[in-house]
Fold:
Amino acid sequence: MIALLLCGIIAGACAAPQFNDFQGVEGTEYKVTVPLYDFKPKDVVVKAREGLVKIQVTDKNQNTISTIKTLPDTVNLHGSNWIIEHGVLKITFPLKDGVKDDRGGSRHGTTA
Structure:
């Protein structure tokens, strides 16, 4: 519902708005990807806290749009990062030690 609302709001702000996103475990990381065409890193703010990640974008008319995504308790907030690459916001979080990935493996070791 939020994604549909944001899509409608952003439609007036950018040429190819889409909030068709992905969330899930890939290897030893939890990844969130959100298409954000026509936005630059200076237009985006990403904030994470236990269980949540907030994505806020500001369009060329200074309108601010935000969405909040839930995160599983297996996500380690320390060591997270984000980048906009080819119009896609990519947020990565390391998994907590001992968490199994999609292929049945597990993450062990220390967190940076």
Q: What stands out?
A: Residues 2-11 form the longest helix (10 residues).
